[in-house]
Amino acid sequence: MMTTLIYDGTFEGLLTSVFEVYDRKLNLVNLQKTGQDNNALFEDKLQVITDDERANRVLKGLKQKISSMGLQRLYAAHLAEMDGEENSLLGYIRYAFDAGQNIEENYGNKFVMRISEMVRMVRREKHRMEAFVRFQKLKDETFYAAIEPDFNVLPLLIRHFKSRYADQKWIIYDIRRKYGIYYNLHDTQYISLDFANVSKPGDIVAAFTEDEEIYQHLWKNYFTSVNIPSRKNTRLHVRHIPKRYWKHLTEKI
Amino acid sequence: MNVDRITEKLNILADAAKYDVSCASSGSKRKNENKGLGNASNGICHSYTEDGRCVSLLKILLTNHCIFDCAYCVSRKSNDIQRAAFTVQEVVDLTINFYRRNYIEGLFLSSGIFKDADYTMERLVRIAKKLRTEHKFNGYIHLKSIPGASDELMNEAGLYADRLSVNLEMPTEAGLKLLAPDKNQADMIKPMGYLKNAIIQRTEEKKLFKKAPIFAPAGQSTQVIIGATPENDSQILRSASYFYKNFNLKRVYYSGYVPVLADSRLPALNTSVPMVRENRLYQADWLMRFYGFKVNEIVNDSQPHLDLDIDPKLGWAIRNMQAFPVNINQADVQMILRVPGIGLLSAQKIVSARKFGKLNWEQLKKMGVALNRAKYFITCNSTEFERRDLTGNNIKQFILATSQSKYLKNTQVQLNLF
Ligand code: SF4
């Protein structure tokens, strides 16, 4: 019989679900996040209560089965919050536990391959954000950027931006997920911003330094100058910078 | 700051620099250890031009004034155009401010020659020095070496820049004589030789003394213009292979000639840019650098040009049908890499995954193998395989028929590498 497990969407919750699977000797399992309920009345349903101790036991066991790199990849795949991929994550972990050897490189297995694809998608989005973040300088010398990535990659960006922009204060804000990172020249912290009082775009512009507009203007000019019209290739252009990213790119506004 | 004036300079000097196709900003391991600004490690494309090229660096000329008269170049002396020159400080400010906003990975600075080689080179070096020392800038810096610059200046350039390049411009000396009468190949090769030795020597020093300064950590590269002179692909790739071997070049860039000037020595103004050919040369270059192909296997006297309608790897495969089919579950990785439709990543995946069990078509497909091409050249764990005794030419026709849109319908499209 199929058992539906419902968990809270956290990594600890995922690991606790794994605990339940083995503790209750479940076989056919369908893992869902809270809120994704599809009202299948006849299934066996179980609400998983996230439990750090159980999660830790699973984590410890998992570390025996896969490398720390493999664990990081799994974590990145989970962090992405891709819809409907709960069962790939669970399937991967179960396969790792059940196999007699390390399975990370067994791309012939559908879970290993799927996780590898998910990691690739997350990495691509991370790289895109490293490329497409456009800072604007505020009057207090903080550089501010807004992003709307397809997946939840903001935590994965910290290391890159912290080591690159070590000598300037910056904020990167995920408007879709409504949280951001602030770097204060020493450490980073998660923050949320209250945009309630910013009703007109003009209010944001008023917070910019004077030369912000000049450099945006120069950058747009540069972007136009380097184009070679006789090589125009819109399809390639849009493949590299899909349109959904344009609204935050200074040169495309 | 006089915004109008600086905008005008930027427009002129970015426009004049854009025909240099190299834009790589990777290969340097410069870290941000001084709590300064930036690092040069990843090689990010921050944007793409409307023609689909990567925008990674602020690529500008210091000036487009030039005492030379190279036929293919918009900045040549006899061309009647608007001239401009940046000051050292202007270039520094632009670089820092663009970098802080995450527009760029760094600076690619080149220049027309004003007065003489050293006079020009000294200014380029001064900009790099100022960025590194006064602004603690660790972003990427690529300096174009001016042919004929002195060893002392080249040495100083190497201390501040990540990459240095001397453009060969024409694949052969004869081509250069014809179009760039003021230049001679010896002047261009000399700094390359100096850099090669300096890089080797500094790398040795670095091994012995951790504190020894890094010297042009991303090495040197060059560019050749394609289609301005009548050299064939064999001559071009042989000369590339020669420079890779003898000067430890990191990259050779192939730049399809964009007709910008009317000159009887050059293709007419309405000639189209040889983009497909340019792409085939890049593919061939990849085969030499990453896939273990020798230049002779790709082009030779009986095959002086690359096929325009199929990529050079497929070209090699159909000329060498005796080497196939390859058994995916047994062949060594070198041979798997030679199968059309299998790239570096999927070859790696295959070799890792087959330790767990023999692979079949479905699994290969999931690993990213392009089966529509690979199927003619491999066998795997399946009773189904291409049994017909097809000639190389048959296969070419089949593959072209199934991937027509990519190769024939729209030749303006820049193709993907494999
Ligand atoms: S020396 Fe350089 S800038 Fe001057 S004309 Fe020749 S290619 Fe152009």
Break the fold down into its secondary structure elements and pairings.
The complex is a heterodimer of chains A (253) and B (418).
Chain A: E1 3-7, H1 11-23, E2 29-33, E3 44-47, H2 52-65, H3 68-79, H4 86-98, H5 110-132, E4 136-137, E5 143-147, H6 154-164, E6 170-174, E7 179-183, E8 188-191, H7 201-205, H8 210-225, H9 234-240
Parallel strand pairs in A: 1-2, 1-3, 5-6
Antiparallel strand pairs in A: 4-5, 6-7, 7-8
Helix pairs in contact in A: 1-2, 3-5, 4-5
Chain B: H1 3-15, E1 26-30, E2 40-42, E3 47-48, E4 54-55, E5 57-61, H2 88-100, E6 106-110, H3 117-133, E7 140-144, H4 151-160, E8 163-165, H5 173-179, H6 185-208, E9 220-226, H7 233-247, E10 251-256, H8 275-290, H9 295-298, H10 312-319, E11 326-327, H11 333-336, H12 344-353, H13 361-366, H14 371-374, E12 378-379, H15 392-402, H16 404-409
Parallel strand pairs in B: 5-6, 6-7, 7-8, 8-9, 9-10, 11-12
Antiparallel strand pairs in B: 1-2, 3-4
Helix pairs in contact in B: 2-3, 3-4, 4-6, 7-8, 10-15
The complex binds iron/sulfur cluster.
Explain this structure.
The complex is a heterodimer of chains A (253) and B (418). Chain A has 9 helices and 8 strands. The mean pLDDT of chain A is 88. In chain A, 32% of the residues are buried. Chain A is of the alpha/beta class and 253 residues long. Chain B has 2 domains: 3-298, Aldolase class I (TIM Barrel); 312-402, no CATH class. A 6-stranded parallel sheet of chain B has the order 5-6-7-8-9-10. With 418 residues, chain B is an alpha/beta fold. Chain B has 16 helices and 12 strands. Chain B is globular, with a radius of gyration of 24 Å. Chains A and B meet through helix 5, strand 4, helix 6, helix 8 and helix 9 of A and helix 1, strand 3, strand 4, helix 2 and helix 12 of B. Residues 66, 68, 70, 73, 75-76, 112-113, 180 of chain B line the site of iron/sulfur cluster. Chain B: Residues 61-198 form the Radical SAM core domain. Chain B: Its cofactor is [4Fe-4S] cluster. Chain B: InterPro entries: Aldolase_TIM, DNA_rSAM_put, Endo/Exo/Phosphatase_dom_1, rSAM, rSAM_sf, RuvA_2-like.
